[in-house]
Amino acid sequence: MRIYLDNAATTPMHPEVISAMMSVMSEDYGNPSSIHRHGRTAKSIIEQARKTCAKLVNASIGEVFFTGSATEANNMVLKNAVQDLGVKRIISSPTEHPCVLESLDFLKEHRDTEIMMVNIDGQGNIDLVYLEAILSDSESKTLVSIMHANNEIGTMSEPHLIGEICKKYNALYHCDAVQTITKYPIDVQAMGIHFLSGSAHKFHGPKGCGLVFISNDHMLSPFIHGGAQERNMRAGTENVAGIVGMAKAIEIATNHREQTLTHIKELRAYIKDKLNALNYDIQYNGNQSKAYADHILSVSFPPSPKADMLVMNLDIAGISASSASACSAGIEEDSHVMKAIQHPSDRKTIRFSFSAFNTLDELDFLVEKIKGMS
Ligand code: PLP
After folding, report:
1. Are 204 and 12 in contact (CB under 8 A)?
2. 166 is catalytic
3. Ligand 1 pocket mutation, candidates 199, 295, 336, criterion most atoms within 8 A of CB
4. How close is the Cα of 307 to the center of ligand 1, in Å?
5. pLDDT confidence of 185, banded at 50, 70, 90?
6. Atom 8 in ligand 1: which residue has the minimum CA distance?
7. Ligand 1: does its nearest atom lie under 6 Å from the Cβ of 148?
8. Given CA atoms 87, 92, 94, 96 in this order, what sign does their dihedral have?
9. For residue 372, is pLDDT > 80?
10. Cβ of residue 335 lying under 6 Å from some atom of ligand 1
């Protein structure tokens, strides 16, 4: 038996997504830019998918663009907001995904952009009072880039409140919603979001297909130059099957949202009860009381030689989970997120992340294995 508990990294594709994509790959292979019938069919399939994506976040159809990943979407927003919209300062958080943080480093170094980080607490919660203080402190045209849910610890920000603060100070608001899109309702209008990114492979869609919402009032210029695809915004022949797969995955996820969330909440509560019953001085990273993404559980084990080997030994036992460390120059180090929340570096963190496909039996198996290894 192999058990997959790394759904924050990527998810298995839903069988209905695979069949929708197979159908497109075998039947609808026209190039959407061609004006003959094959091309027109492919084009109309893409536009249908765009409607589904726009509806998902309450955007208009012209505000949604397909990309190759959320990494691309985030690069596009951050770099082109500086290039096109006169953004001189970006306020972000130290726990953002590397594709945001690395883009910010680039902008600081090569585009003279001022980068500021909000304060966070030990659970990764954003200090909104501080955000407001630094926004009120400068007249510089500012973009606030804060993710909806952290991919390592699950702590969620409060888009409504961030949107309100941004509006008050005339700042733009970019939200990396990769870990939440389809799982929780997102309304870019109500939340005051100007830019938002998502990625199909995080919600049982295919890899290599992302989306970006760009508000009509703050439209960016093309990120990739060439043909006129994506209304000139992103040249390159479209990934038609991927786009269809993403739209299908959205349809399935939204039709079953409540049911899936109930199941995932049950999985989370179940594994926490079982782990707590072990009396191993286990701690949980990130917000555990209210503002968290239910599918991500970051578990911190007390220092021991066995804890160091846990992810590897679980893998050998048939369980895929993720560690919160990165290997740098042969030395294992806590990730930037663990460092930012000041997680004690001698403890060992494992991230378990769930999807609708996981079962309580799988979690029983996991706990039995942890018992034998700790
Ligand atoms: N942002 C967050 C929060 C993520 O979790 C990820 C993927 O792990 C990304 C961005 C990048 O997404 P993609 O794999 O589509 O490039």
Report:
1. yes
2. no
3. 199
4. 27
5. very high
6. 9
7. no
8. negative
9. no
10. no
Atom in ligand 1 nearest the alpha carbon of residue 70 = 15
How far out from the chain centre does Cα 320 lie?
19
Tokens of 372: 């034998």
Q: Burial, 280: exposed, middle or buried (Cβ in 10 Å; 0-12, 13-18, 19+)?
A: middle
How confident is the model at residue 374, as a pLDDT?
64
- So what's the pLDDT on residue 69? 98
Ligand 1 contact, 99 CB (< 6 A): yes
Residues of the chain with pLDDT > 70: what percent? 98
Please state, in angstroms and rounded to a whole number, the distance separating the CA atoms of residues 11 and 21.
Answer: 16
Report whether residue 75 contacts ligand 1, using a CB cutoff of 6 Å: no
Check if the beta carbon of residue 32 is closer than 8 Å to that of residue 200.
no
The one catalytic residue among 99, 166, 209, 327? 327
Nearest to 253 by CA among 179, 356, 176: 356
> Is the shortest distance between the CB of 147 and ligand 1 below 6 Å?
yes
Q: Residue 327's pLDDT band (boundaries 50, 70, 90)?
A: low
Mean pLDDT of 105-134: 98
pLDDT classification of 329: cutoffs 50, 70, 90: low
How far, in Å, CA of 204 to CA of 369, rounded?
27
